[in-house]
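Anyone able to model this chain together with 2-acetamido-2-deoxy-beta-D-glucopyranose?
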Amino acid sequence: MTVSADQRIIGCLMAAVGLLVTLLCTLHGSANSVTPEFQCDFDEDMDPFCGFRQSTDDNFNWTRNNGSTPSRDTGPQHDHTTGAGYYIFIEASMKGPGYKASMISPSFISLNIPRCLRFAYHMYGRTVGTLQISSQNEGNSTRSKVMWSLTGDQGDQWHVASQTVPAETTRFVIEGVRGSGALGDIAVDDITLTPGYCGSDIRDGHYNDQLSM
Ligand SMILES: *[C@@H]1O[C@H](CO)[C@@H](O)[C@H](O)[C@H]1NC(C)=O
Ligand SMILES: *[C@@H]1O[C@H](CO)[C@@H](O)[C@H](O)[C@H]1NC(C)=O
Ligand SMILES: *[C@@H]1O[C@H](CO)[C@@H](O)[C@H](O)[C@H]1NC(C)=O
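re: yes, here you go
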């Protein structure tokens, strides 16, 4: 039996596609193979804030919510995880400019290696203020250090950010600062903490890989 040149080319193409798919699956698999030591999608009614607590050293609180926020032209329409779950947000209505709401993470033991903090954020509205994440070392009474910060309207969509957390960190703080007006809801969802550096983020300072949903 003879095999035509066409059949041979098709065979080669199929083999090449198969190899590419295998390679992509392997890469994808290894990127997700490290199990997070902390994970919070705010979807558990039994543990709605995953051990985060509201700071008393601020002006108002983060709120857990599903669906859209009460105000139009600001805030998400749904959560980031499934579109049907919960997220946390700061409601900008009826607050003064610069008003802050802080949530403190549970404490975790400091490792001798950094960790990667990943989270989804939604910052939509004409007068969106600032979202910032700080690290703290509870054994060190010096004030917390801002690791990541973003100000202003980022469009009506969820973004994913990752930030390498220094090894000495024992907890982190998520702070929302209200902007100049009521169109400034800021939401956060899907927080994970994984041992090791974040992918390409091996430098200090700000890094956010903005992957839209
Ligand atoms: C914020 O939450 C804390 C802890 O649950 C509570 O004690 C405090 O009254 C709340 N503040 C406001 C303004 O609702
Ligand atoms: C929000 O959650 C409540 C309680 O689980 C549910 O009844 C409601 O339909 C949800 N709303 C939206 C918009 O997802
Ligand atoms: C405490 O924090 C300060 C400022 O970030 C830093 O310079 C110092 O090394 C820290 N000390 C310890 C014991 O971690």
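Residues 5-31 form the longest helix (27 residues).
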